[in-house]
C-alpha cells in the first residue's frame, strides 16, 4: 500500500496537484480543533464545518481526548495558541467512536496475540498505567466535558482562549454543542 501511495505522490507532484492547497502555516480562522482520527471524519469534519485548507489546525488523536495535561495533544494545542496564533479551540468527539468501547484487557489480549511479550508489557507498565492508558471512555458527552476542562484549566493556556466542546454525527456531520 505504501508503495502505491509513493507512486501516486510522484504523479501528484509532477502534475502540480498541490497548487490549490498552497497556504501559509498560520490558520486563517485562528482556530484549533482536537478531534478523533476516525476515517469517517477525514473529509466529513472539515466539510461539515465549512473549513478550507489553511483555515484551522486540526489535531487528530484516538477518541479526540487529552489523556494527561502534558501529553503531545496538549503540547500541540500550546503550539497552536502561542506559535500559530489560535484564539479558539474546538474539542470534537463523534457518534459511534471506537474509543468509547476500548477495554484495556481486550487491548492487551490483542497485543499478546500479535507477539507482544509479558516482559514488554511489564516494561511499559513501568512508564504508564496501562489500564488507564488503554481503556477508552464510556460516555461521549462526559469525555467532551473532561477534555474541555483539561484545556480551560491548564496553567499554560491563557484565560482569553475560547474552548468549546461538540459531538459530530459521524454519518450526517451534524454538530451538537456540549455545554
TrEMBL record:
Note on cofactor: Binds 1 zinc ion per subunit.
Residue positions binding Zn(2+): 36, 38, 94, 97
Top-level taxon of origin: Bacteria
UniProt entry tagged with the keyword Nucleus: no
MF (Gene Ontology): carbonate dehydratase activity; zinc ion binding
Pfam family, one: Pro_CA
SMART domains: Pro_CA
Swiss-Prot/TrEMBL keywords: Metal-binding, Zinc
Cofactor dependency: Zn(2+)
Family: Belongs to the beta-class carbonic anhydrase family.
Protein name in UniProt: Carbonic anhydrase
